[in-house]
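Here is a tokenized protein:
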Amino acid sequence: MQGWVTEHHPTRDGLTACVQCGLCLPVCPTFRLTGRETASPRGRIQAMRSVDEGQASVDAKFEEILDFCLGCRACEPVCPGMVPYGSLLEGSRAEISAQRPTAYRRLRRWVLGRVVPTPALMRILTVVLRILQRLHLIRLVPGRFRRSLSGLRPLDHAPNRVDRESDEPGGIGLLTGCIQEQWFPEVNRAAVELLRNAGHEVSIPATQTCCGALAAHDGHAEVAGRLGEANDRAFAACGTIVATVAGCSAHLVDRHGDGAADITAVIAAAIDEGRLPMLPRSGQKVVVQDPCHLRHAQKSIRPQRLILEAAGLDLVELDDAGMCCGAAGLYTILQPEASAELGRQKAGRISELGPELVASANPGCEMQLRAFLGEGYEIRHPIEMYLQALRRHG
């Protein structure tokens, strides 16, 4: 058996921290969907152990087991052994990429390493999508992509994107995000306005690039490392790197610790400290959807609730233990059936609750929810809702 071949492989300490207790089973979306042990965190860790101990190899079966995982990290908060499941998963996928470099994986590596981090190419893609939206031709997109793209916000009337600044950085450096910058620019603009209203100096480094989260989750560790190093240089003079995408902020926090944060944490802190106001109750209800990389990876659920309460909204909880919506980066493309079933379950729960206003702090989740909820629902980032409320109150 070949075993591990890269420096990114799962560590022995991480693998042996799992005591196979099974507390992860009820919170794992894929186990709940299938009931299969190999679709659970402890089952996947057992597969990793088998490779680590030379009893199995990185073969097609191992790849199938790991690829079915959402990477939602719901298992981490309930684990008594504090198993670093996210890093074990990324390390195992790095091994799959190294030992089984199929044409499809090479294509994904090129897209995530070259296309997505290049603003000019992303702008071209955005123009194409805008034309398809305007002509109502999204239905012509191949099936695996069509469902996700059907959840895009209208691109026709998107406001100007925030300008990348090359002057001396301030205290906070804003990561604009490869997807967020092109498809959800309103969120970044809200972030800049609120941060400056709260008294923060905000810099948007001109040389920044994709954070590398998508590449890391798909097993392209060297691509993620290269992008991370480029951003280290771009944000070198910033005190804190802030991201408006939960998946990006989780990746940055894993890399930089306290030197990075999600926008919801920073805005909530400003509200707590009185630098941004609490508004009177409006009586309008909002369903709160927790992105996995906020709830599970960063263990952060209070900030977005505080922001929504400060906007004068009444919160309606899903009470589904933060079950993943099925978006999970590339999962909608790689595992469309499982992704769709989870999306239907989440949308069904939201529709049962009644309110047609939904808060979500991650673009992938927003697209997934919009695709399954359909028309009639307004889905926005919590900071957008807060800024809108501030403007209504002058």
In short: The longest helix spans residues 336-353. The beta strands are 172-175, 202-203, 240-243, 260-262, 285-289, 314-317, 357-360, 378-380. The CA atoms of residues 102 and 257 lie 34 Å apart.
